[in-house]
Amino acid sequence: MRLTMVGQSTVIIELESGLVMITDPWFESFAFIRASLPALKPEDIPVVDLMLVSHKHIDHFDRAAIKLARARGAVIIGSRRAVESARRDRYDDCIEVKPGDEIEHEGIRIHATTAFHPFAKDAVGFIVEAEKTLYFCGDTRAERQLIEELKGFHLDVALVQIGCSTRLGKDDGMNLEEAARLVREIGPTIAIPIHYQVKGKVVDPEEFLKLVPPPLGLVLPMGEPIQL
């Protein structure tokens, strides 16, 4: 399995079989809220077979991603509102999922997991069972129900949110400390921070390594493929 950090929650996942996935693809919309530019443009990504979209917020899914899916013939697997957005843009190669759903695709199994996002009730996370088992949290709080759900899997890799904002008195996801607590409880082999590059919730990912030291904690360099 090879991973490339594009930016924010956008990570390219390349499997040994040749299958390529991308998580929460965000490239162009509302660029003024980005703390740093994406490492790759859509046209720099030659193959995308699956898009895993946790929810339809501006920093997780945009029209450039739908355009990329159309150009590469990718299947979008996502939350209800994410799929609705793609279909409004006349892209129908989509699969809507909710927590508990399972999909098999070319020898891999994808589980839609619970996500607790106070401002996206349809949000999901994903577990991909391939040559390694990978968890992508999307945007979620580390609630006990989610932790118990994840303990049912032996996780090789966990992509965990480390930056969130507070609105209406609620955190909309995990901060550094919550992410570290989740990692300690679910016990992945490798924990990789994501979701730290939006203005107002910028976090230095190296701070994650102080709470989750290597070799457990791993920060992906921007745009550089890393073999796991």
CATH class: Alpha Beta
Given as residue ranges, the uncertain stretches (5+ residues, pLDDT < 50) are none
Q: Assign the structural class, choosing from mainly alpha, mainly beta, alpha/beta, alpha+beta, or little secondary structure.
A: alpha/beta
Mean pLDDT: 95
Helix tally equals: 5
Largest sheet: 7 strands, mixed
CATH architecture: 4-Layer Sandwich
Q: How many separate structural domains?
A: 1
How do the strands of the widest beta sheet line up side by side?
6-5-4-3-2-1-15
Provide an overview of this structure.
The structure is a single chain. This protein is α/β, with parallel strands linked by helices and 228 residues long. It has one domain: Ribonuclease Z/Hydroxyacylglutathione hydrolase-like (Metallo-beta-lactamase, Chain A). 19% of the residues lie in helices and 28% in strands. The chain has 5 helices and 15 strands. The protein has a 7-stranded mixed beta sheet, covered by helices on one side. Strands 7-8-9-10-11-14 form a 6-stranded mixed beta sheet, covered by helices on one side. Strands 12-13 form a two-stranded antiparallel ribbon. The longest helix has 11 residues, at 176-186. The chain is globular. The termini are close together. The mean pLDDT is 95.
Task: Please sum up the structure shown.
The chain is of the alpha/beta class and about 230 residues long.
